[in-house]
Design brief:
The chain has about 190 residues and is α+β, with helices and mostly antiparallel strands. Helices cover about 20% and strands about 35% of the residues. It has 2 domains: about 120 residues, NusG, N-terminal domain (Alpha-Beta Plaits); about 45 residues, SH3 type barrels (Roll). The chain is built from 4 helices and 13 strands. The longest helix has 10 residues. The radius of gyration is 24 Å and the shape is globular. About 15% of the residues are buried.
Length: about 190
């Protein structure tokens, strides 16, 4: 009778785990270790992707040089079966895999592929993460230093600026590079 129950539930034998497809996941790394982590992942034959962008930097001796920096600081993308998470976590410099509790958060394949295909064809650089309703500060141009609330993101960012003394608001459209998240104000 015991053999009959086992036949009904089809218990997988050792080494016969059900197939799970590989997905892209974000590996969180030590600061400034992204390139080294990507190298280690390649040596362990774990598919990875480290998007970088070029920027010009000026050293203390006034020399300028173009360097490549990670597009997403502290992250390297890995393409693995979720059961291989231990192989990634063993890599020096990897702190964790992004997820919720014990389950990993897979990234859509099309987003990674779009990043890969556009890196050589377009100018891509990091930008602060901004969401509608967030308080922002204009950091360039004639309105530099003025704060408002982001109300639309389309071709240009639309920010509503509140003039408290007049109890009025105005909307202004600015380019993305002119905005940054505003520091949270402390209330007394």
């Amino acid at each position: 009778m015991l053999g009959h129950v086992a036949d009904q539930h089809e218990i997988p034998r050792l080494g016969e785990l059900p197939a799970v497809s590989a997905n892209w996941f974000a590996a969180y790394t030590n600061s400034h270790h992204e390139k080294q982590v990507a190298l280690y992942l390649g040596q362990r034959q774990i598919e990875s992707f480290l998007p970088v962008y070029s920027t010009q930097t000026r050293w203390k001796n006034r020399c300028t040089k173009i360097i490549e920096l990670p597009l997403f600081a502290n992250y390297v993308f890995v393409h693995i079966d979720p059961r291989e998470r231990a192989r990634v976590l063993e890599v020096p410099g990897v702190l964790s895999l992004v997820g919720f509790g014990r389950s990993l958060a897979p990234l859509p394949d099309f987003e990674i592929e779009a990043l890969r295909s556009s890196l050589g064809q377009r100018t891509i650089e990091p930008h602060p993460y901004l969401v509608i309703g967030q308080r922002v500060r204009i950091k360039a141009g004639a309105m530099c230093g003025i704060e408002g609330v982001l109300v639309r993101i389309k071709n240009k960012f639309r920010v509503v600026l509140a003039l408290d003394a007049l109890m009025r608001s105005v909307a202004v459209e600015v380019d993305a590079f002119e905005l940054e998240p505003a520091a949270n104000r402390m209330t007394a």
